[in-house]
Design goal:
Helix content is about 60%, strand content about 5%. The chain is mainly α. Among the domains are: about 120 residues, Potassium Channel Kv1.1, Chain A (2-Layer Sandwich), CATH 3.30.710; about 120 residues. The chain has a three-stranded mixed sheet. The protein is elongated, with a radius of gyration of 32 Å.
Length: about 450
C-alpha cells in the first residue's frame, strides 16, 4: 500500500514540475519514492534543504534523502507543490502531517513570507479546531506523527478543543442521539482517549458524563469481549498469550484506570462484563480488584444473569474461578455491616432491603450453578454462607439450590447432612415442606 502511494506521488510529480525547459538537478529520496526536482524552487521555501545543499561536502549535490520527513512521500509531494506554487488541498486529514513536514523542512515565515507553516496553522485554527469532529480527526492523524505533533502542541490543542466541546455536548446536545459525541471519541487510540478524558475531568465534567464516554469506548474497542453477554459465537476465542490478547489486556487496564472515583457511575451489567473480560484476559489484580469493588458497592442492583456473566467462560461450557463472586458478595456484606453499625443498629437482627435483595439474588444464582459438575461442595457452601441468615426471609430458593446440587453431585450422606444445615426449616414455605416430605 505504501509503495503504491509512493508510485502515484512520483507519477503526479511529472505533471506539475516546471519550468520544463530547465532540467531537474536534484533527486529527493523519500522512502521508496524518488522525486526529480529543481534546487532553486525548493531552496526558495525550505531553509532545511538550503542548509543541506550549502553544507554538503559534494560540489554539486545531486541526491537528498528526506526519508524521515513526517507523512512520507505523499506529504512531501504536497510540500514540494507548495514550493513550486502549485495548488493542492489542505484537509483535516493531512493538515497535521503538513504542519509537521513544514516544521521539518523549516518552511517558516522567518525564512519566507506566507510560508507553509503559517498556511497550515491558519487552516488548523479556522477549520478542524472549530468543531469536535474536526479536532478528533486531526488528533487521530497525529498518532503517526509523534513526537513532533506533541512538540508543536497540535495534540494538546486538539485535546483541549475536543474535551471542551464534548462537555458542552454532554450538557446541551446539538443532535440525536444525545450521546453521539461518545461514538466520535472511539476513533482514537487509547492514549489519546485518555488525554481527552483527563482533560474533561479537569474541566469539571460529571462522573456520569465520563462514564458514558468510557462505556462506549470499551464496547467499541473490545467489542467481541465486552458487548457479548451470552458468549454465543465466541467459542473460537483463544485465551492464550497472543499479541492480540496482550494488547486487549493493556487496553482494558487503561480503561479501568480512567474510571472516575464515584463507584456507582457505571451500570452493574457493564461492570460485570468488564470484569469477565479481565478474568478472561488475565488482567492485573489491581484492575480486577477495582472492578470487584465497584460491583460490590451496587450489588443490590445485580440480577442473576449479571452474576452468571462472571461465572462462565465465553463459550458457556466451563466455569471461571468463583473467587471473584465470593469477594464481591463479601465486600457488599461488609459494607452493609458498616452502615448498620454507623446507624446504631444490629446487623444480625435486621437486614436492609438491599441486603435482602442480594440474598434472594445469591440464592437464585446458586440454583443456576448447582448443576455444574465442577462446583465443589466447599465453594457452594462458601458462597451460600456469605449471606447472613437474617437476610433471608424465606429459604425456599436456597433449599431448591441445595436440592439440585445434591441430586447432581450424588454426595455421601454425611456431606448431605452438613450442607443442609445452611437451611432454616422455620423459613421454608408449606409448599416446600410438603414436597420435602413426599421425597422422604
Amino acid at each position: 500500500m505504501a509503495n503504491s502511494r509512493a508510485s502515484l506521488a512520483m507519477e503526479r510529480t511529472g505533471q506539475w514540475v516546471f519550468p520544463r525547459e530547465i532540467p531537474t538537478d536534484v533527486i529527493v529520496e523519500v522512502g521508496e519514492a524518488n522525486f526529480s526536482l529543481h534546487k532553486f524552487m525548493l531552496i526558495a521555501k525550505s531553509n532545511y534543504i538550503r542548509k543541506l545543499i550549502i553544507e554538503s561536502k559534494e560540489a554539486d549535490l545531486a541526491r537528498i534523502n528526506l526519508s524521515n520527513i513526517p507523512g512520507g512521500p505523499e506529504i512531501f509531494e504536497k510540500a514540494a507543490r507548495f514550493c513550486y506554487g502549485v495548488n493542492f488541498d489542505i484537509t483535516v486529514l493531512n493538515v497535521a502531517a503538513l504542519r509537521c513536514a513544514a516544521e521539518y523542512l523549516q518552511m517558516t515565515d522567518l525564512y519566507c513570507e506566507n510560508n507553509l507553516c503559517s498556511r497550515t496553522e491558519d487552516f488548523l485554527s479556522q477549520v478542524p479546531l472549530s468543531s469536535l469532529s474536526g479536532a478528533l480527526v486531526v488528533l487521530k492523524s497525529c498518532e503517526d506523527l509523534l513526537p513532533m505533533a506533541e512538540d508543536l502542541k497540535i495534540v494538546q490543542r486538539c485535546v483541549d478543543v475536543a474535551s471542551a466541546k464534548a462537555c458542552v455536548e454532554a450538557n446541551f446536545p446539538s443532535r440525536s442521539p444525545p450521546n453521539w459525541w461518545t461514538e466520535e471519541l472511539t476513533i482514537l487510540d487509547v492514549s489519546f482517549f485518555e488525554k481527552i478524558i483527563t482533560s474533561m475531568k479537569s474541566g469539571g465534567a460529571k462522573a456520569l458524563t465520563i462514564a458514558s464516554a468510557i462505556i462506549t469506548y470499551a464496547e467499541r474497542s473490545l467489542r467481541d469481549l465486552v458487548r457479548d453477554h451470552s458468549g454465543n459465537g465466541i467459542k473460537s476465542l483463544d485465551s492464550g498469550e497472543s499479541d492480540i490478547r496482550i494488547q486487549q489486556r493493556d487496553l482494558l487496564q487503561s480503561i479501568v484506570a480512567l474510571m472516575p472515583p464515584e463507584k456507582a457511575a457505571f451500570p452493574i451489567n457493564f461492570l460485570c462484563r468488564l470484569l469477565r473480560t479481565g478474568i478472561f484476559l488475565r488482567a492485573a489484580n489491581i484492575c480486577k480488584n477495582e472492578l470487584e469493588k465497584r460491583i460490590s458497592v451496587i450489588l443490590e442492583h445485580a440480577t442473576v444473569d449479571d452474576l452468571l456473566v462472571l461465572s462462565f467462560s465465553y463459550d458457556g461450557e466451563r466455569q471461571f474461578d468463583h473467587e471473584s463472586i465470593r469477594r464481591i458478595i463479601s465486600g457488599f456484606v461488609e459494607k452493609e455491616k458498616n452502615v448498620s453499625v454507623f446507624n446504631g443498629g444490629d446487623f444480625k437482627e435486621a437486614s436492609s432491603t438491599a441486603m435482602q435483595r442480594v440474598a434472594k439474588t445469591v440464592d437464585a444464582y446458586l440454583g443456576e450453578i448447582a448443576t455444574s459438575v465442577d462446583l465443589s461442595i466447599s465453594k457452594f457452601n462458601g458462597i451460600a454462607n456469605l449471606v447472613p441468615k437474617g437476610a433471608r426471609k424465606v429459604d425456599d430458593d436456597l433449599y431448591r439450590a441445595i436440592d439440585i446440587y445434591l441430586k447432581v453431585s450424588k454426595m455421601p450422606t454425611l456431606l448431605v447432612s452438613w450442607i443442609t444445615r445452611i437451611v432454616d426449616d422455620l423459613k421454608l414455605s408449606y409448599r416446600v415442606i410438603y414436597c420435602r416430605l413426599i421425597q422422604i
